[in-house]
Amino acid sequence: MVELIVRILINAAAVFVAVQLLPANLLSFTFGNDWWKLLAVALLFALVNSYIKPIVKALSLPITLMTMGLIAFVINAAMLLIVAFLSGQLDLGFKVGDFPPDLLSSDTIIGAIVAAAIISIVSTIASIALSPRKLI
Predict the structure, then answer these.
(1) What spatial distance separates the first Cα and last Cα of the chain, rounded to whole Å?
(2) Sequential DSSP letters for the chain
(3) Cα–Cα separations (whole angstroms), residue 109 to 39, 41, 72
(4) What is the pTM of this model?
(5) For the CA atoms of the chain, what is the radius of gyration?
(6) Residue 58 burial (CB count, 10 A)
C-alpha cells in the first residue's frame, strides 16, 4: 500500500513537471488550487501503467524488436492519451494538445510523445532517489 502511494506521488510530481515545462498547446492541466485533481490524474496514470501498459507491451513485442525499442515512445504516448481521455470523462481538466474533446492533431501527438518522455525521465529519477539503498 505504501508503494502505491509513493508511486502516485511520484507520478503527480512528474505530471506537474511536464505541465510546467511544456507550452499549453501541447499539454495543459487546469487544476488551480484543487490538488486532488493532480492526485486523481496521477492515480489514473498509475492504474493505466499498471494494468493496460503491460498488455500493450506484450502484444507489441515483435514491433519493439524490429524498431529496437523506439516503439516504447509511442506506447507511452498512447498511455498518456488514455489518461487524458479518462480525465476528460471525469472532468479533471487534463488535456494533451486539444485531446479530449477534439480528435488527434499534430500538437496532440507531439505533446503526448514529449510529455511521456518528460514524465518517464522525472519518474525514473524520483524512483531512483527514493528507492532504498542496498548495502554490498
Answers:
(1) 27
(2) -HHHHHHHHHHHHHHHHHHHHS-TTTEEE--TT-HHHHHHHHHHHHHHHHHTHHHHHHHTHHHHHHTTTTHHHHHHHHHHHHHHHHHHHTT--EEETTBTTS---HHHHHHHHHHHHHHHHHHHHHHHHHSPPPP-
(3) 24, 19, 14
(4) 0.88
(5) 15
(6) 9
Tens of pLDDT, residue by residue over 25-68, are 888 888 778 889 999 999 999 999 889 999 999 999 999 999 99
Query: CA-to-CA distance for 112 and 95, rounded, in angstroms?
Result: 10
Q: Which residue has the cell 487534463?
A: 94
Q: Which three cell numbers stand for residue 82?
A: 488514455
Q: What pLDDT is recorded for position 34?
A: 83
Query: 78 Cβ partners below 8 Å, 6+ apart?
Result: 56, 112
Tally of residues, the chain: 136
